[in-house]
Design brief:
Helix content is about 35%, strand content about 15%. It is α/β, with parallel strands linked by helices and about 400 residues long. The chain has two domains: about 150 residues, 3-Layer(aba) Sandwich (Rossmann fold); about 210 residues, 3-Layer(aba) Sandwich (Rossmann fold). α8 crosses α13. The longest helix is centred in the first third of the chain and has 18 residues. It is elongated and about 70 Å long. About 40% of the residues are buried.
Length: about 400
């Protein structure tokens, strides 16, 4: 797509020549940034624009539609794109390349109808030129699931290009570990010890903690910032030794400015722990992530694959640790069997979690449940008192 635009005279490069759709705002911005970096290296005047909620992208796009502002490649999330199309925005005429990144997620329940509507509008364009459609994902299943449509239903006579890794060994640089966590230990205490197991640096390595819910993301970010500490210090009740951990939360309900701030802090190392829902597992490229912790067990093999893919990137080493409660073991064994990977068993922390950790965890539960909606400041619920260490 970029090569084709480069080969054209600048004045002949059409608007909206390429349309890229991705499921999350963060991935959309990352794709646009990558395109801009590639184009900058060529010295060519190829213009990229994003379309995501919570920004002024909508106004800028309308200016590009009605005026001389150029936009050769549009990168958008499904909902924002459909909103512009329904309002009469003419961004489908002339699209020669349609790219669906994380295509399996785009055809999941949350996005399926929106994507079908978008592609139907593209196909209904009476002036539609020939178009190349490309669908990408690390986890596209070949079978049709009940009540869903195949990804290939959106394109005509598709060719499938795949890399079959089912029989390939997992790279030695990526360790897969599981930790059975007894109730007397608790996930928070296990998480505290796991995050602190890596060498402290400087700088302390980047780590990502995955959770199932938005409330849990805020709760654990607050817990790490306010409570987590060196195990021997907490247990003995001695003077608290700072852990060097600083966490930020990332999930889909954060406003765009807060999401940008969280990722910027994590990339810039002012925060070294990112506590995220699966919105942080799809396609985002954070440098030098040494450890991924599944505080909650992934729902499916695909979720595990995407979470694990945040570490051991670019030939670096990395570790994935999944914390298992009593009710998680059977489900995770199914995922483990499908992956074909034998997990290393990591021992849970010895003894019982300190009362200080237990009390702080319960306080965080109550405080976060009451105050997280629209009242968050960084990783800490507004108005929640700091727990004595």
């Amino acid at each position: 797509m970029i090569n084709e635009l480069i080969c054209m005279p600048e004045e002949d490069r059409p608007r909206f020549y390429g349309l890229i759709v991705s499921p999350t705002r963060d991935l959309t911005k990352q794709i646009a940034t990558t395109i801009e970096q590639i184009v900058a290296a060529t010295g060519e005047a190829i213009h990229t624009m994003t379309l995501i909620a919570g920004t002024d992208d909508d106004a800028r796009l309308r200016a590009a539609i009605s005026g001389p502002s150029p936009c050769n490649i549009l990168v958008a999330t499904p909902g924002s794109l459909l909103k512009v199309l329904e309002a009469g925005g003419d961004v489908v005429t002339g699209v020669r390349h349609l790219v669906l990144d994380e295509a399996d997620e785009l055809m999941a329940q949350n996005f399926r109808d929106t994507m079908i509507d978008i592609v139907t509008r593209l196909n209904a364009d009476p002036t539609r030129p020939s178009r190349r459609s490309m669908l990408f994902s690390a986890t596209i299943d070949g079978e049709r699931k009940p009540g869903t449509r195949r990804l290939t239903d959106l394109v005509t006579r598709p060719d499938r290009v795949s890399v079959d890794v089912r029989d390939a060994p997992m790279p030695a640089r990526l360790r897969h570990c599981r930790m059975a966590v007894p109730a007397r230990v608790g996930r928070d205490w296990a998480l505290n010890n796991t995050l602190l197991a890596l060498p402290a640096g400087p700088p302390r390595p980047r780590q990502i903690v995955f959770v199932d819910t938005k409330i849990a993301a805020h709760r654990l970010a607050w817990f790490i910032n306010e409570v987590a500490g060196e195990p021997q210090t907490i247990r003995a009740g001695e003077k608290y030794q700072p852990s060097g951990l600083r966490a930020v939360a990332l999930h889909g309900d954060l406003k765009q400015r807060a999401r940008d701030a969280a990722t910027a802090q994590f990339i810039g190392r002012s925060a070294n722990v990112l506590v995220a829902t699966d919105v942080g597992a799809r396609g985002l490229d954070f440098p030098d992530v040494a450890l991924v912790v599944n505080h909650s067990v992934p729902q499916t093999r695909q979720h595990y694959t995407h979470r694990a893919g945040r570490t051991a990137r670019n030939e670096a080493a990395g570790t994935v640790v999944t914390l298992l409660g009593r009710d998680d073991v059977a489900r995770f064994m199914e995922i483990e069997g499908v992956l074909g990977v034998e997990m290393e068993r990591m021992p849970a922390p010895a003894g019982t979690q300190p009362l200080r950790i237990m009390a702080a965890g319960k306080a965080a539960d109550i405080a976060t449940q009451k105050t997280w909606r629209g009242k968050m400041k960084g990783g800490k619920p507004k108005g929640v008192k700091r727990v004595s260490k």
